[in-house]
């Protein structure tokens, strides 16, 4: 048992391990719910439904006011095996791409912002679109909106990157992303209408995130410090003092002297990846991309 706890703790001690941390949080929540459901079933109590309502995102704004944390907890919560397996596999495959090209911090930003965007669209549809209003109140769980944000972001950044799929062979990830988006559009009038609407919210965020990043704007900057604090709770490393320079006194020469690439250089590299793939980069460009992923 101590070995398991040590493995979990070590996973959060590494600052560049965000992909595994996200997957681990989802798995830990899933396992905890399985254990609770089993214990409560043996005790012949019906408290499990109450526990799930504390974690699920309600469509009713009044319920949300009483459970505001659910706008975050819902995208770390799963109840079915197939649901979490599908989401975690996609998170791993596409999250590896985002982590390799943009760094761990951007991956966390996409995951959280994708989940929040999915929640916003879900709430808007259930409270303003007649088809959803007549369906009555509902609750939502699952990381699908967050995961689809990462999938679409990867496809926007690297549209011609190829995965070798079982039975299908090599497929460009832009077609995988389009398929999943269209699947969510078709499912927006099905049994899981609210969930599929949330997927589309995540997909839209993923596209906008990369477009803004190429324009020099990081939508997830405010998330970085929060995630670093959460990860630091599991770490024994001493706190580091960070000093900030006045942007007004910073110069391009100072940036170059520090070895960190400028935003223009990063934009050029990202455009080159989008057009010709990662392998088209020179060794120097790959090193610049790596340094950029570590600098914030």
UniProtKB/TrEMBL annotation:
One of its GO terms (molecular function) is serine-type endopeptidase activity. Residues 262-295 form the DUF6576 domain. GO terms for biological process: proteolysis. The chain crosses the membrane at residues 21-43, 81-98, 110-128, 140-158, 165-187. It comes from the Bacteria. Residues 67-209 form the Peptidase S54 rhomboid domain. Pfam families: DUF6576, Rhomboid. One of its GO terms (cellular component) is membrane. Keywords: Hydrolase, Membrane, Protease, Transmembrane, Transmembrane helix. It is found in: Membrane. InterPro entries: DUF6576, Peptidase_S54_rhomboid_dom, Rhomboid-like_sf, Rhomboid_protease_S54. It is a multi-pass membrane protein. Belongs to the peptidase S54 family. This is Rhomboid family intramembrane serine protease.
């Amino acid at each position: 048992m101590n070995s398991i706890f040590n493995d979990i703790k070590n996973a959060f001690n590494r600052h560049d391990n965000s992909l595994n941390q996200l997957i681990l949080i989802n798995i830990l929540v899933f396992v905890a719910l399985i254990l609770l459901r089993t214990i409560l079933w043996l005790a012949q109590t019906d408290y499990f439904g109450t526990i799930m309502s504390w974690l699920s995102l309600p469509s009713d704004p009044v319920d949300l006011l009483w459970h505001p944390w659910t706008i975050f907890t819902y995208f770390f919560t799963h109840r079915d095996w197939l649901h979490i397996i599908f989401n975690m596999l996609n998170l791993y495959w596409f999250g590896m791409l985002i982590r390799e090209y943009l760094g761990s911090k951007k991956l966390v930003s996409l995951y959280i912002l994708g989940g929040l965007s999915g929640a916003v669209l879900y709430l808007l549809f259930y409270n303003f679109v007649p088809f959803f209003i007549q369906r009555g109140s509902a609750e939502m769980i699952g990381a699908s909106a967050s995961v689809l944000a990462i999938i679409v972001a990867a496809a926007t950044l690297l549209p011609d990157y190829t995965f070798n799929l079982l039975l299908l062979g090599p497929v460009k990830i832009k077609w995988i992303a389009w398929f999943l988006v269209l699947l969510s559009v078709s499912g927006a009038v099905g049994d899981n209408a609210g969930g599929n609407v949330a997927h589309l919210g995540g997909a839209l965020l993923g596209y906008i995130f990369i477009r803004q990043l190429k324009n020099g704007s990081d939508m997830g900057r405010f998330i970085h410090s929060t995630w670093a604090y959460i990860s630091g709770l599991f770490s024994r490393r001493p706190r580091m003092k960070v000093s900030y320079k006045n942007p007004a006194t910073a110069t391009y020469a100072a940036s170059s002297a520090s070895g960190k690439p400028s935003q223009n250089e990063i934009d050029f590299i990202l455009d080159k990846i989008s057009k010709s793939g990662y392998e088209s980069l020179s060794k120097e460009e790959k090193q610049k991309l790596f340094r950029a992923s570590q600098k914030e």
